[in-house]
Amino acid sequence: MADHFTVAIIGSGPGGLSAAGRAAAAGVSHILLERCDHASDTIYKYQKGKLVMATPDVLPLRSDFDFKMGIREDILGTWDRQLEEHKVNIRYGAEVVAIAGQKGAFTVTLQDKSTLTAEYVILAIGLQGNINKLPVPGAELPHVQYQLDDPDEYEGEHIVVVGAGDAAIENAVALAKQNSVTIVNRSGEFARAKQGNLDLIRAAIEKNQIECYYNSSPARVTEKTLVLRTADGEAEVRCDRVIARLGATAPRKFVEACGIVFPSPDPKALPEVSSTYESNVPGLYIIGALGGYPLIKQAMNQGYEVIEFIRGNKVEPADEPLLKERFKGLADVTVEQVLATIRANVPIFSELNPLVLRELMLDSIVHTPKKGDIIFRRNDYSNSFYTIVQGEVEVRVNPLDDSEVVVLRQGEFFGEMGLIAGRRRTATVVARQDAILVETQRRTMLKLIASVASVKRQMDAIAIVRQIQTYIAPHTPVERLYDMASTAKLRRFKAGEILFSQGDAGDSVHLIRSGSVTVSRRIGGRDVVLSYVASGNYVGEMALLTNAPRSATVRAAVATETVAIDGKAFVDLLGSDPALRTEVEAKFRDRLEINERMERAPEAGSIIQFLIEQGVGEATDVLLIDESLCVRCDNCEKACAETHHGISRLDREAGPTFASIHVPTSCRHCEHPHCMADCPPDAIHRAPNGEVYIDDSCIGCGNCQRNCPYGVIQMAAPPPDKPGLFSWLLFGLGYGPGEDKRLRKVHHENVDKYGKHAVKCDMCKDIEGGAACVRACPTGAAIRVDPKQFLSLAKLGT
Amino acid sequence: MNESVVVYRGFRYLKVATLLCLLAIVLYAFHTPIGQPNGGSWLGYGLGGIGAAIILWLMWFGVRKRRYKPGKVKLEEWLSAHVYLGLALIIIATLHSGFQFGWNVHTLAYVLMMVVILSGSFGLYAYVRYPRLMTENRRGQTLDGIFTQIADLDRECRDVAMRLGDEVNDAVLAAAQRTRVGGGLVRQLSGRNPNCPTLAALKLMQKLAAGPRHDDAGVRKLVQLLAKKDDLLGQARRDVQLLAMMQVWLFIHVPFTFALIAALVAHVFSVFFYW
After folding, report:
1. A481-600: what fold?
2. Which among B3, B68, B135 has CB closest to A772?
3. Could you tell me which of A44, A603, A729, B51 has the fewest CB atoms within 10 Å of its CB?
4. How far apart are CA A375 and CA B185, in angstroms?
5. Residue B79 to residue A779, Cβ atoms within 8 A
6. pLDDT, tens digit, 9 for 90 and up, residues A748-763
7. What CATH number is given for A3-129+250-310 in this structure?
């Protein structure tokens, strides 16, 4: 007679292990079936020494097995030890080929034809057991492989890595140390990879350590070559080894044979499960990646929970206490109720799966403003995103008249303009009645927009209308804008890319929603910059108003996103709204005049051009030094060091100079700060006045220093204390005001004691009077400016 | 976009100082002291007290400049006031003296004060004039950048000189190893180095190229390289010179201020002691 268990768990990955651990600890009769001769084959096949992350950081782990961020070997070692300690009943080499029966009486058949019976079955097989193979002739050859254990095993080989995800990049970069490596990318960029890996692969390609074929895919594999289909025809690449990292999909045939239904024929589709992880087959549960939750920690928590569900216990999700804390401002409602309300009331979040919504809420704040409370003010530099779960708010759109308002109701959102443009708030928002609002942090929201298509779609659709209203037609009723908005398209431009050229036909107006552009005209055979246009303005209306070809070339100064509005729709709107037409024409005449004057003052255009080349176009506040006044006393640097723990965050001498304007090495507080992009502890923030600063949670990883294109972040430890000013002034003790750079080399004590952390300019945000560098300049040479205002004829044409 | 200390806030402190001086002159003109005008009259004490207070306040600038405390007032405002109130002292102190000068500690204090004011005036001139010259001389480069180029040229010169015999080799080696930019104060201020080994090597190469080794491509190349290096050295020395000019006056301004204070204390003490 076959062995009988209460629970059969299939797959010993993180989810299966955790389930078996819980079953063992709770005394539930169980068996853990593993196809290989070791547990957790997916992680076992990770690259040797790979750092395994424990994201999401905020989610607590609930499992009888331990898990924290660490290297592959340590994690597997811990689990092997705990398998024995917990007396888990695991059977290796047991590949399941069929599951039949129903709740209470499942029969599980193994590869060796043996069977066992169980009351419940938990499928924790993940996806990696079914990795995608190269779909080309020759894929079965022995030198084609789908995993890489230890990159150091290979030396002096020609290796081709196929794929553009994190695994492919990690493999390629590691192999490139001792081999000649080529990477094959089906698209034109590495869009799916983490920022850190993206930087690695870009740097390696730039330094010719790795050769990259973009827009190419394998055609066939032979003994010594891989033939690629590229944009320019076939190419043959020499290779001793092919490593294909093409991801994995659900083993659909097997899963369907168990009676489980997939919601769509899409090969990437995953089966749906209930809130207790039960599939459409009662008694058959699915956890982990196959159920849509690919993170290790999530899977382990599910393993624990699913056993408790089977035992008839109601368990709260692991993040329940954290969410309760988040929601404690709301009277007497359960977390489940709050989440259900958000889902029901807020369309932009309604398509999120429960786990993603919970994670989102962990990174959000619930506000309960009373009627009349101000949520944020115009010109604040906050950039979080708000959704209205209940109640109403009014957006005061006119700085001169508080009664001109737009009312937003339950389910709508606001704050997206600051999020998109990286600039100050464009309006003041006030609660119109007692309300419940969810405030989501910038980084969380950006991640969500990037990963969930429905969120991006809904947000863009509404944002476009609002941007048109705010920046082009503030007094036109919003209903009249829908037609025009429906013709609008979002367009992205890289720095330096042309929006349109002088002489082109004018067919559209571009509303700049993030980034900035320069307008230039060819005069006497060279490009003369006429103006700099920041986000929140539009360009391209001239040609439409005059019915003539484009009179100038418009180029993106930095990475820029525009709302491209169809020319005809724009002209139609002007036709139907005489007031708007007058406004647009007035602006048009101003521009004509400025262009004329700029043509006669080309030096101002050259300065704009120079500053744009220095990246000032993406700055919100930049330190400039007028060298015709600067006496090189370095008091700015000294002031910076004296007010910032002894380390100067600016280097006056370094940096380029043009027409006596010097751009020192100092933070520009970018619209979309590069330093913020990949900060593991999320320690870099933007203060309400726009200062980008690093808080005390910095771990000293150096990502921000590497990501800053302007070299304004340093890794440093505080220098030792020194005697006061009068001790130096009267008795010559210490080395006087400012930072003594010689100390950096010799003082190891504080480096050992505190470690090095990232330091950068915080624009003296907590110091009365503002930037110390500017206040301490004896001759008025140092100024801080916002390029939006500064890069204009009025400021430069003198 | 930027305002220099001279024109700061529409000459605010020039106006204050002028007003102060006019007031002093008017009072002086209408004042009828017992005997000839002197520091012992009520107006003399008044002007002396104001002058001494201004001197102490001007001295405090040295501390203010190095105290980077929070506050709305910029250092530039202090410097603007420092300049104009310092200049106003010329009139206030002269009127205070009643034009009585002699070989005594009182006149010593007056002379020391004038030295401080004159050196400060040169400082103002330097601050207004030299920054622009310095930028023009730099031609968009940093001093470090210039030195890197010089080091590259040295390496190139030595490679070329290697094959050209001892005489050439020694001269080029000396040019590479013993050329100095800056040095003592006089050297820095002169902006030149008449005994520069690079210049000597250049002259030697020019002589050789014009005479015995006129067909030697290596020598011609060295003329080119050394001439370029000489240019860069000139640029670097000019940079050092201008920076020195902007700082040198402080070596008079500051010590003489302390001497002035000593003399001032003696002056005040003696006036009251021998009264």
Report:
1. Jelly Rolls (2.60.120)
2. B68
3. A603
4. 62
5. yes
6. 777 777 878 999 999 9
7. 3.50.50.60
